[in-house]
Specification:
two-stranded antiparallel sheet; about 375 residues; TIM Barrel; single chain; eight-stranded parallel β-barrel; alpha/beta
């Protein structure tokens, strides 16, 4: 396995932790995200992940930058950094998504990747009058239609998502696709240009349920894990590696979401973590731009979200639960421990974002490279 790859979340929500942090104002503008991605590239980060929401999950009155237009713009302005953009299959047809992805692949000259998240965010769908197509409820033997694909039960949504991603992956290679499934009927459909710089864009997948693990093994290149304990992650990775994968495909790789608090000493890092928790508590109690009732807006059948909502953490997708909190040396050792466990790509968040991203690049990344070289 190659060395650790470091990525950063793009700040399209305006913050990755407390909305009231005095040194990290809420700002989801294109100017801020553009400058953040360009800075990450200059600092040597390998990737940036642009999350996809229509409405801001921190509060509908807050700005939310569109993921796919931002990705196209970032692709045109950068030279080396990988642009990973999330998509929820329930909001777009696979042929349209594949066309957009191939367009950004062309703009970036082979640096684009898709992060597929088989989830739904209720306000994005219900408040906008989506989903826009009704399907039969698989549990209803009369064949009566239900609200639509976005609100399908968890496991059935993965039936939909598996068909969707299978079609997308084939279209991204330039293949002329015919497909007949439960949810999609594709007739000799192909897209150009494709394959100009490589076979196709990379495919990341988010999700940890059993259907998600099957889908990752069958169709994706990288499975993103949310912040969790190494013991939990080791079980998950081992289980996914046991699942069937098409012959001839490269081994599945793994990524990890983490919120970093790196300080000169472990003691100071723990103090900063407590400060984050206290600030988040004040945000919630004051309702001053803090997170809405998040638990009521997500899929109740998602094992991943059940675990995240029961785990105290700071930052997106498990954040500090990954344990990257401590002195520069402590965080370095934990990154290499995660790497030994099978994690290649670390998708990192900070607060205040730009300042702590620079600190990580100056203090932690060089230590990781030096320690890895010393034990090689």
């Amino acid at each position: 396995m190659s060395g650790p790859r470091f990525g950063v979340w793009a700040n399209v929500h305006g913050t990755m932790a407390s909305p009231s942090h005095p040194d990290d104002p809420m700002d989801a503008s294109w100017v801020r995200v553009r400058d953040q991605i360009l800075l990450a590239e200059r600092l040597g980060f390998h990737s940036t992940l642009i999350a996809q929401h229509t409405m801001n999950p921190l509060g509908e009155e807050l700005d939310q930058l569109d993921a796919w237009t931002a990705a196209a713009a970032a692709a045109a302005l950068t030279e080396e950094i990988e642009i990973i953009t999330a998509i929820k299959p329930s909001i777009i047809h696979p042929t349209i998504l594949a066309k957009q992805a191939l367009g950004i692949e062309e703009i970036s000259r082979g640096r684009f990747a898709v992060n597929v998240v088989n989830a739904w965010w209720k306000p994005d769908l219900e408040r906008a009058g989506m989903p826009w197509v009704s399907w039969p409820d698989p549990a209803d033997k009369t064949g009566a239609p239900v609200a639509g694909i976005g609100m399908l039960p968890h496991d059935e949504r993965y039936v939909f998502g598996t068909e969707w991603l299978h079609v997308v992956r084939r279209l991204l290679t330039g293949e002329r696709v015919s497909f007949e499934g439960k949810y999609f009927s594709i007739d000799e459909f192909g897209l150009r240009p494709a394959g100009t710089y490589r076979e196709r864009p990379r495919i990341y997948l988010g999700g940890e349920s059993s259907p998600a693990r099957d889908l990752a093994a069958a169709e994706s290149d990288v499975l993103f894990l949310n912040g969790q304990s190494p013991e939990q992650a080791a079980e998950l990775i081992a289980d996914v590696r046991r699942r069937p994968r098409p012959s001839g495909r490269e081994p599945l790789k793994f990524g990890l979401a983490a919120f970093v608090i790196a300080e000169e000493t472990d003691e100071r890092a723990e103090e900063v973590l407590v400060e984050h928790f206290l600030r988040s508590k004040r945000d919630a109690e004051g309702d001053g731009g803090g997170m809405n009732d998040f638990s009521g807006q997500i899929d109740p059948g998602s094992p991943m979200w059940k675990r995240l909502l029961s785990t105290a953490h700071v930052g997106p997708n498990g954040g500090t639960a990954a344990g990257l909190v401590g002195s520069y040396d402590t965080v370095t050792r934990r990154i290499l421990d995660w790497h030994d466990l099978g994690i290649e790509t670390f998708m990192l968040a900070y607060q205040p974002f730009e300042a702590e991203m620079e600190r990580f690049a100056a203090e932690v990344a060089p230590r990781v490279a030096a320690l890895r070289a010393a034990v090689a």
